[in-house]
Design goal:
The protein is an alpha/beta fold. The protein has a single domain, classed as Spore Coat Polysaccharide Biosynthesis Protein SpsA, Chain A (Alpha-Beta Complex), CATH 3.90.550.10. Helix content is 48%, strand content 18%. It has nine helices and eight strands. The strands form two sheets. It has a five-stranded mixed β-sheet with strand order 3-2-1-4-7. It is globular and about 70 Å long.
Amino acid sequence: MTEHSKAILSIIIPIGPEETAWEGLLSDLIRQSQPKDSIEIILSATESEPLTFHEKRSAIDIPMKWVVGQKGRATQLNRGASVASGEFLWFLHADTRLSDSALSSLIGQLHREDKSLFYFNLRFLNDGPWLTILNETGVWLRSHLLGLPFGDQGFALKSILFLELGRFSENAEYGEDHLFVWSARRRGIRLRALGIPLYTSARRYRQKGWLRTTFRHMGLTFRQAIPEWFKLLEERSERKEQNIHQSHRVSGSGVQGEGKMP
């Protein structure tokens, strides 16, 4: 990609302090079959770039940026998006791993339907308890049946649409990705499953316990989802009333017009 050209897709990866999992994700991105001049990689961190980043950037022909600022997943995601030049944005967690066809499949879908929020099917790596297979099923049901994919499923959308949705909430105590999906649903944005696996670490379930971690996530999700659900129903009801009112006005205007005819 030349200095004045624009990437098709900006890949944004938030990085925590002393985190190194992003190195594996970069290796996956390098192996992708998509032409490298169609993407750029933005790592949004809280510390200055390590030597590893310079080594990888000099070894590959992919534009890469390392941006530094305030800590916080939503803040780091928004900061990465603010410096992105791509027509589309793809948000990935640092511990994500990709299948070889993930990038090419995503770009193909983005061009065919550019007014949707895309997400992947989540799979857990073999670094946690075997019970995470139940979590995979739960994620599938939550995202496909309830329409609630989460950020570890690799959100992708047009950059203009991201701005229209108000970016990620930096005021939320947690679940900025969850709130972003509710914002999309309230605006009638279609949620599109790509049907492609995306892999993430299950080490948290091993470190903090499968049962405790699972129920904690469920509790936090319900706590945030219930008020958002009522908000969605309220806005839908208001739109329905506005449409009915507008229809009555149009119908009334038609009747009056007929009365004035000779």
